[in-house]
Amino acid sequence: MSGAGNENSNGNGSGVDLDRLALLVSPTDRAREAAAELQQCVKWVPMEEASAVVVVGGDGHMLDSLHQMLDDNRILPAYGLNLGTVGFLMNRYRGCNGLLKRIAKAKPLSVCPLRMEAVDQDGGVHTSCAINEVSLLRETRQTAKIEISVNGKVRIPELAGDGVLLATPVGSTAYNLSAHGPILPLDSQMLALTPISPFRPRRWRGAILPDRSKVCFRIREPAKRPVAVVADQKEYRDVAEVRVEIARDMEMTLLFDPGHALDDRIVAEQFVV
């Protein structure tokens, strides 16, 4: 078994302590098989001792891992190895071959989640973070009617439809893309505000906002037209108002291989037919 320090002297542009890496593995068969191989070539440490994590799986497992770190209030740089489907947030899996050198040379990219504060119809306040998106969705057959304000100014007095979402660049290729929203480069410092099956205003297809924007959604006729809000996987029902902004105090670092060609993948995704 080779110690992690053996490759540390070869230059470490990522700033990661290669002697203190933790391994987070998806429960899928492919990821577990890969983990068995990786256990033979790197001396891993427990999460509480780690300076960075290697995440094996797909984008979903990467998001789960990041959420767990947010919940634990211990956010570490994350280097993903793709054994999922899309792997937009991951690097190519190549087994043990040069893994520590790849991590040492990886380029850090900072991303921030959204902080959501939702007030329900009874006045209860719920807070949560979303790495992908915050989405508002109608609960019944009744069309949702939502007022949208940006930085205190009403921009859409009444959006009628199935709902609306606010996505980060990380989440722009997820639900946002399915709702015909724009793909945002991870370093764009923008947010995508995208309607979901809008009925009125008919010609509004959403907006791209600077990530310093504060967005407020107010539900019109909430008792008659109940709306739920979902921050990634956390759902709160019967909301009356939802406020969303970037949580800069929860900045996370993703590590990518220098040849990851992320910009090329972002362009390519927009031409998939």
Automatic annotation (TrEMBL):
Pfam families: NAD_kinase_C (PF20143)
Transmembrane segments: none
Protein family per UniProt: Belongs to the NAD kinase family.
PANTHER family documented for this protein: NAD KINASE
One of the record's GO cellular component terms: cytoplasm
Gene: nadK
Gene Ontology molecular function, alphabetical: ATP binding; metal ion binding; NAD binding; NAD+ kinase activity
Protein name per UniProt: NAD kinase
Role summary: Involved in the regulation of the intracellular balance of NAD and NADP, and is a key enzyme in the biosynthesis of NADP. Catalyzes specifically the phosphorylation on 2'-hydroxyl of the adenosine moiety of NAD to yield NADP.
Organism name: Alteraurantiacibacter aquimixticola
EC number: 2.7.1.23
Residues noted as binding NAD(+) in the record, renumbered to the chain: D59, G60, N132, E133, D162, V170, T173, A174, Y175, N176, L177, S178
Keyword Membrane (UniProt): no
